[in-house]
Every structure is written in structure tokens, then in C-alpha cells.
Amino acid sequence: MAQPRIVIVGGGFGGLATAKALKNTPAEIILIDRTNHHLFQPLLYQVATSVLSPNQIGFPIRGILQDQKNATVILGEVTGVDKENRCVFVSDADRKNVPIAYDYLILATGASHSYFGRNEFEKFAPGMKSLADAVAARNKILQAFELAEAEEDPKRHRDLLTFVLVGAGPTGVEMAGALAILIKTTLKSNFRRIDPALARVVLVDMAPRVLGPFSEHLSQAAKQHLEDLGVEVRLGHGVDQIDADGVVIAGERIASKTVIWTAGVAPSPAGKWLKVETDRAGRVRVQKDLTVPGHPEIFVIGDTAAFEQDGKPLPGVAQVAMQGGHYAGKLIHSRINGSKPPAPFRYFDKGTMAVVGKGFAVLQSWKFQMSGLIAWLAWAFIHLQFLATSSLRLSVFLQWAWTFLTGQRGARLIVNHHASEPASTAVREALPAAAGGK
Ligand SMILES: Cc1cc2nc3c(=O)[nH]c(=O)nc-3n(C[C@H](O)[C@H](O)[C@H](O)COP(=O)(O)OP(=O)(O)OC[C@H]3O[C@@H](n4cnc5c(N)ncnc54)[C@H](O)[C@@H]3O)c2cc1C
């Protein structure tokens, strides 16, 4: 008899956890992802700020699953689901909307940026969700220093060296801290005509405090530490405008050539594919066993699912996705094997952390709270543990140790994937003057 087929869409935290939980299940597993790598999103900001290279936080999915003989990996973009005929539609560079049949389906397609209805901001304030986004942010940041060094007019230095981050959640706070350290230490003695230490990092949020999910005490400690690093923290007002010249906050224009969006996220369109009930954000409302009502064979997990526990929705964090993926895998295994199914899903909150600059983090787990160096060491240890492979763990550990001790960041390359992109208009304008031209 043919084995049941389990199709997993998404090789992120949730999808991979499902695949691994099905390692010993007599089934054919097909994992489909539109990228060929699993990405450790919590460290994207370290790629954007040149601490790590892209290959240190991403790893090929087929490499991770190479020893799992019942799993096949397909590179392709899922564009829809036919619930009645039990198939998903997959497109790749070669073929469009090819149906792939399933007996069980797990949708773990994550989230993307949300500009809260102001999509026109995206052009001027790119977000950070993928490796390409992080490399683009790194290019933009490093290029700003290059443009300033080449710029003859000192009045333009200030605009070029003002970096605005919109959103003071964990990503914005971590990015602001890392950017401040990059400016103060690594770049300090690299330039001759500008002083990188004069650069401004402005962190903006409409909320009254940074790190909303943390306690007020930790949020205050993080803000203080950011300010000690020289970050300007502007709270209580959202951005009214973002354009090529910078941002407008509460009527005040902040001139900047580098604005990065570190605010909202929107779930993938899984709810639209399935035509089922979603919450206001568009996340699929799932039952206590993470399945879609009326379809015990369809599971939705991670950032794209809305699951309430004790009257509150679960947050969009990696642990929720991993635990959900593990649960879905166990439940499917029990159904295929005819064994006792696990009890309804329950998320176990192991705590939340955010790092602020060098050697300082905040950590909150139930009633326990901590900030400072010990919290940072715990943060480093836990993040290393959750990287996809031991080679990544070793490489990131060595890189962190080197950067901590020397302040050096090796990944300071401006990589434009399209050679035709202007490296810098200002360079072309400024160089003839610098060379004694007109
Ligand atoms: C910058 C940043 C920092 C973060 N920091 C933290 C942190 O410090 N701690 C924490 O716990 N969480 C953090 N998160 C959140 C965490 O990364 C997510 O909660 C987690 O990744 C969700 O897992 P997931 O499996 O639902 O989705 P993801 O891990 O996003 O995986 C989704 C996968 O689906 C694939 N996919 C999407 N659509 C399709 C499609 N149509 N067809 C095929 N494949 C598709 C994607 O390529 C991706 O591989 C951060 C997120 C970001 C963006």
C-alpha cells in the first residue's frame, strides 16, 4: 500500500520542526520552500550591521534534511491550495501552478512586512525579512559612509550619516544597538574626511516605550542602554511621512538617506488560499490541535496561525512555530500509526530576550527578569543552540568571540548584485572635484 503523503509548505522554524518530528513516520514527506535555505531570522540584523555573513545564518534545507530519507525538498513557490481535491499549486522558474497532491498539509509560510496600510513607505524604508533584505540594508548603511567620505559639502554629511529605524520592538532595538557599536568602534579609524562617530542613529516608535512585550523595568533599562550608546530614542509618535529625503515625525522632518523599517509584520496569504476564517491581521484561526475547522488533514502553524491560549493570542516568535511544528508532526505520526494522539496543543513559554549593543541584553521568563552581561551570555548561548547545524554554531561562536574582543567586523562588503546599479551618484559627482576637476 502507498504511504500517505505529507506536504509541508515552508522550511522555516515551524516547517522544519514538523519535518524532523516525522523522521520515523512511514510516510512520504515533501517540503516545499521558495528559497533553498532555512533562515535564522533573529540574527538578520547582525548581517545588516556586518557582524555576520549571510552564510552564517542561512543553511540549505536539503542539507539539514539530508539524513532524513523519507523527506524530499522542492524549491518552489506555493500559490494556492485546493482543499476539496487535496492539492497545493507550486510554481518555479520552469513551470506554473503544478498541482502536488497531499494526504496531510502543513502550512508554515511565516510572515512578511506590514506597512500598516502605508505601502508607499516601502520604497524608502525597506524592511528585513530575508537574507536579501539584510544584505540590501548592509549595502545601504555602508554606502552612506562611502558617500559621506566622498562628499565635498559638509552640510550633506549630516543627512547621509543619519540612520532612522522605524519600530522599537526587538528587531529595531537590536539593530539600533548594533549600528551604534558599528559606528563607534569598527568604523572609527577607517575614514579620513568624516568622523563616523558623528553619525546619528534615531529609533522611532509610536508606542510609549521600547520593547513592548517586556516589563516596564526591562524596557526602561534597554532604552537607557541605547541612549548611553548614543542612540536617539523618539517614542510616542509614529512616522507621518517617509520619502527620499527622510522622515517626518510629529511635524518635524529628520533628514536621512537611510531609513529602515523594523515595525509590523503581516502573515502569508495562507488564509486566502484556504478561504477560512482569519483574525484581523489575516492569520488563520486554528483549533486546539492546530488544524483548520472542518479539515483535520490541514494544519497551520507559526507566524501564519492565530492560536489563543488562556484568552491571549500567541506571539509571532520562533518558539511558538517550533513547538507548533513539533506538535503537528507528533499528531500526524499518531494518526498514521494508530497510536494515542497527543493532548491539545499548549505553548510553553521559555522566555523572551533582546540584545542591546555589546555585552548587554534583557531577559524575561515568567516572573524572572534580568539585564546586563549575564543576560547577554544567556542570549548568546541560546541563540547558538538554535542555529541549524553544528558548523554554523562553531562559525558564529568564533565570529562573535573575535568581534567581542577586537571590535572588528569582517562582513563589511557592499555587494550590488546588479553591476549596473549606480555605486554612488555622489561619488561620481564628488570625485572630479576631489581630483581637481571642475
Ligand atoms: C528580523 C527578525 C527578527 C526576529 N527576532 C526574533 C527573536 O529574536 N526571537 C524570536 O523568537 N523570534 C524572532 N523573530 C520571529 C521569528 O523569526 C518568527 O516567529 C519565526 O521565523 C516564525 O516561524 P515560521 O515557521 O512561522 O515562519 P518562517 O520561519 O518565516 O518560515 C517561513 C518559510 O516559508 C517560506 N515560504 C513563505 N511563503 C511561501 C510560499 N508561498 N511558497 C513556498 N515557501 C514559502 C519562506 O521562504 C520561509 O522559509 C524575528 C523575525 C524577524 C523578521
Distance between the termini: 81 Å
How many H/I helical runs? 12
Structural class by secondary-structure content: alpha/beta
Any ligands, ions or cofactors bound here, and which? flavin-adenine dinucleotide
Largest sheet: 6 strands, mixed
Overall geometry comes to globular
* Average pLDDT number: 92
What percentage of residues falls in helices of 4 or more residues?
Answer: 25-40%
Poorly predicted residue ranges? 423-438
Strand content: 15-25%
- How many strand elements? 27
Question: What kind of assembly state do the chains in view correspond to?
Answer: single chain
| Radius of gyration (Å) | 23 Å
Across the major sheet, the strand order is 5-2-1-9-21-20
SSE map:
Blueprint: E1 5-9, H1 13-21, E2 28-33, E3 37-39, H2 44-48, E4 58-60, H3 61-64, E5 71-75, E6 77-82, E7 87-91, E8 98-101, E9 104-107, E10 111-113, H4 131-150, H5 154-160, E11 162-166, H6 170-186, E12 200-205, H7 216-228, E13 232-235, E14 239-243, E15 246-249, E16 252-255, E17 258-261, E18 265-267, H8 270-274, E19 284-285, E20 291-292, E21 295-300, E22 305-306, E23 308-309, E24 312-313, H9 318-337, E25 352-355, E26 361-365, E27 368-372, H10 373-385, H11 390-406, H12 425-434
Parallel strand pairs: 1-2, 1-9, 2-5, 9-21, 11-12, 11-17, 12-13, 19-22
Antiparallel strand pairs: 3-4, 6-7, 7-8, 10-18, 14-15, 15-16, 20-21, 23-24, 25-26, 26-27
Helix pairs in contact: 1-9, 4-5, 4-12
The structure holds flavin-adenine dinucleotide.
Provide an overview of this structure.
The chain has 438 residues and is of the alpha/beta class. It has twelve helices and 27 strands. Strand 14 and strand 15 (246-249) form a beta hairpin. The radius of gyration is 23 Å and the shape is globular. The relative contact order is 0.15. Bound molecules: flavin-adenine dinucleotide.
